[in-house]
Amino acid sequence: MSDELILYGFGVNDRSGKVRWLAHELGLPLDDRRIGLGEHRQAPYSDLNPYGMVPAVQWRGHTLIESTAICTFVAEQFPASGLVVAPGEPARAAYLQWCALFAETLESRLVENLLAGYEMLPPAFLETTKGSLERRLPVMVQRLPTSGFLVADRFTLADLEAAYSLRLAVRAGHVEMEAVQGYLRPLMERPAAKAAAFFSSIE
Ligand SMILES: N[C@@H](CCC(=O)N[C@@H](CS)C(=O)NCC(=O)O)C(=O)O
Known about the structure:
Shape: globular
Strand order of the largest sheet: 2-1-3-4
Distance between the termini: 37 Å
Order of helices and strands: EHEHEEHHHHHH
Number of strands: 4
CATH topology of the largest domain: Glutathione S-transferase Yfyf (Class Pi), Chain A, domain 2
Helix content: 40-55%
Bound molecules: glutathione
Number of domains: 2
Structural class: alpha+beta
Number of helices: 8
């Protein structure tokens, strides 16, 4: 069976970027397919993701949607990579907490805030996301390590999820790079992140 991962995304900045970075970390052959704006809501793409969003992935006979679920499922097939903190590992609870903080609590609000700032969403989104981000981002920044990784003394999907939100937060000016660079710069230097152009919007 081919291990090629077919990835559908708009470009390098949308959530397909998380999967692209992961594929490079794992050395998976990648077929990177770009979807034009509008195509994501129509067949044939909507046959892959009926919710009309990117990313979608075809891999090992599976059609996968939802970036965090995709990354977890793919990484779990490579336990030796250590990208997932497995049940039974001491850092499991902290790993799940960081993943949820970024992927559930912060990510959507950051995306909506940024898109509203570019007038790609109605201005109301600026108002509804502002208070939440202003309260929570400083707490997250204060709890970030100043070097190394979030958990388990190794790079995990929690760091990849964190990087996506931090990149958005720095890009939008919510977080100063100086405040997070001890943690973020080493992630930006990872060859797989560079190959995926994951940080190109803030480099
Ligand atoms: N929770 C989903 C969110 C997917 C999502 O909202 N993708 C955006 C791009 S980053 C999108 O496709 N937006 C187009 C639209 O909503 O019409 C995931 O992580 O995959």
